[in-house]
Design goal:
Elements: H1 18-44, H2 49-80, E1 84-88, H3 99-110, E2 121-126, E3 141-145, H4 148-161, E4 164-166, E5 169-175, H5 179-186, H6 189-197, E6 201-205, E7 209-214, E8 217-221
Amino acid sequence: ASDLVPLWPDLTGPSKNISEDIKTILTSIRQISATIVEITQETHLSDSDGRMTAAEMKIESLISDVADLRNCLDDQENRARRNNVRILGFPEDVEQGNPTQFLGEALPALLKLPEETDLATERAHRSLAPRPAPGQRPHPFIVKLLHFPMKELLLKSAWELGTLDWEGRRILFFPNLSKALQDRCRLFLPVKKILREKKVKYGLFYPATLRITYKGETSSFGTAED
């Protein structure tokens, strides 16, 4: 089970048009890239130290803008996934073509939820990748739930139960984060291992902030180096 239980931003305000935001960001990146090419060509045609310095400063500014836009795009992607859960370990084809029905029956029993629990699943599917060869790890399920509290309940239940077994297979639950955010979270793995060994209470919260409680005091860290 995962100890990654993210604290998402408040999204109760007006809904955002993520598709339009992404289009705007991509357009801006293309414009910035074209400007960089243009500036580079200009500096090749000029020996002026002043023009070269100005061009270098402009390029540095544009590179910073691109980084900001990429961070914005990644944030939008993770906001779109805020109700998603990624589940690993179920064998291929166990859902018999109906993953929503299978998970609706299997998860409450696996997580020891009340029998009448309705997951309120919007959709569920295997991850989009080539079918694994025999002996390889099966595709994970990606589940989009209608309600954010249900997503949090599934992750919290999996975390509290620890090792989950389904017909001899270990089942793991994770938030369905973007690759960029997953990479940031993985940087904390060595630190988390040390904290577990020393039995220090901690939690990893959205987007990638480690909170440590020690001797009654809680501290937050944005990077593993901190």
